[in-house]
Amino acid sequence: MIMDEIKLVKEAVEKHSSLIFETEKFLWAHPETGFREWTADQYLKNVFRGLGYDIVEAGDIPGFYAELDLHTAGPCIAILGEMDALPCQGHPDADPVTHAAHACGHHCQCAALAGVAAALKEEGVTTGLCGKIRLMAVPAEEIVDLAFRVSLIEEGKIHYLQGKPEFIHRGYFDGVDMAMLIHAGSQAPGTLLKVRNGPTCGCIVKRMTFIGKAAHAGARPGQGINALYAANTAITAANALREKFDDDDHIRFHPIITEGGSAISVIPNRVVLESYLRGSNLKAMMRYNRMINQAFAGAAASIGARLEIHDYPGALPMKNNPVLRQTAKQAVELLEGEGTCLLSSEIWSPGGTDLGNLGSLIPVVQPSTTGIEGVGHSKEFRIKNPYHCCQIPAECLVMMTRLLLRDGAKRAKEVIAKAAPEFASKEEYFAAMEAFSTRGEVVNYAENGNISIQLS
To answer: What are 107-118's pLDDT values in tens digits?
Structure first.
């Protein structure tokens, strides 16, 4: 029985291996950053339509989903593929104009997604399963091109900086009970799949604009208000807070100056800092973010500068669901042999993903493969073994689907029953996301000389 199931899954995916590898090659050659993935979007939609799927398009942004109804009531599983690349100047395969490159391997997820979509159409693959399977091509996991994304928010095209929160807002995850994707990675020899234990870091995306007063830097510096000095003072003040950060919250704050003055001879009147505030604990992130905003406002006030703070909710901390972790391990070891999956025991992961936003509402899992070469997000990043990064994930996702939805969806129902989401509803989730937001001037100068700080 088990051997028959292994054979069924492997043959169903192998039959479409050329589609998987062609998709990987095409997307690698056409990298696009988040909310700009129109070439990938169209290519994948053509693949899905060619397989006989009906597509629900996001429309004004890239991305879509297709749903396979198994015609017997049961849970709905979402299988995801992220479409976006990221800027990676100097990468030999980067786009010559945008400098975008698939230096995180998201395109492999989409290649695997295409393989899953094809395999699920093969005879016998969904026999005996109940529920629904929602296959989703999702944009914008990486937070890059901040000015562009803020412009989309201001135009009303998007509400959030990342794809999964935006899809949650649009209702594309409504009715989904759990979600999974498999990310490209690198493991020790013999390990084909790794599933982390502890949470990833979430982040608040911060843009802080110091506004001073220009003056001649040599002849009349005293007539100016130096926005760059205000920014430097703010960074020093924030650094003085670091000893207050609890180690268990894994707080990281790493600002950069993206605008620092226009001319050497002019006192800078506008300086822009951008940063993430990262952490593995949602409440701690909110607490420390307020402390940093207060420090920045105090620094601006000490110089006499104005300060605009724009905080945007980014990724939330993500923890893999325990039952889904075990299901991923069982699936890959059925397919590839005992000992090929590592359930790691670390209590924290320094990376981040907007799968955490979805995971705050429903159970999720994101294993990582072997098969890459070089450091992620670097110009040395390569897909060394497309079979390990694309085809094995497709096989694993199909097998996981079978394990979850067979026998009356017994395993999937166990996942749902044991889940403990951060938020009880979308409304509660959206309220928390809005609580991250600080937008506008925070230092007020009264005519009588009084100075006040207003933090939302």
So the answer is: 999 999 999 999
Q: Is the pTM of this model over 0.90?
A: yes
Q: Are residues 69 and 146 in the same domain?
A: yes
- Do 274 and 408 fall into the same domain? no
Alpha-helical (H) ranges within 162-319 are 163-170, 227-239, 282-303
Q: What is the pLDDT of residue 1?
A: 61
Whether 256 and 361 map to the same domain: the answer is no
H-state helical runs in 259-391: 282-303, 322-336, 355-359, 386
Widest pairwise Cα distance in the chain: 87
Phi and psi based region of residue 202 (left: phi greater than 0; alpha: psi -120 to 50; beta: remaining): beta
Position 153 in a domain: yes
List, for residues 272-306, the tens digit of each pLDDT value. Answer: 999 999 999 999 999 999 999 999 999 999 999 99
DSSP state of 450: -
Strand partners, 193: 341, 369
**Domain-embedded: residue 446:** yes
Q: Are 192 and 212 contained in the same domain?
A: no
* Cβ–Cβ < 8 Å for 163, 82: yes
Asked if 130 contacts 409 with a C-beta cutoff of 8 angstroms, the reply is yes
Residues sharing a CB contact under 8 Å with residue 300, sequence separation 6 or more, in sequence order: 210, 230, 234, 306, 307, 442, 443
Q: Could you tell me the residue range of the domain that residue 393 belongs to?
A: 2-199+316-422
Taking CA 14 as the corner, what is the angle to CA 398 and CA 104, rounded to the nearest 5 degrees?
A: 70
Residue 61: phi and psi, rounded to 5, are -135, 160
Tell me, what CATH number does 442's domain have?
Answer: 3.30.70.360
Nearest by Cα to 126 from 68, 51, 54? 68
Q: Which tokens hold the place of 241?
A: 């807070």
Confidence of residue 348 (pLDDT cuts 50, 70, 90): confident
Does 143 share its domain with 258?
no
Q: Are strands 76-82 and 178-180 parallel, antiparallel or unpaired?
A: parallel
Please tell me the total count of domains within the chain.
2
Check whether residue 138 and residue 257 sit in a common domain.
Answer: no
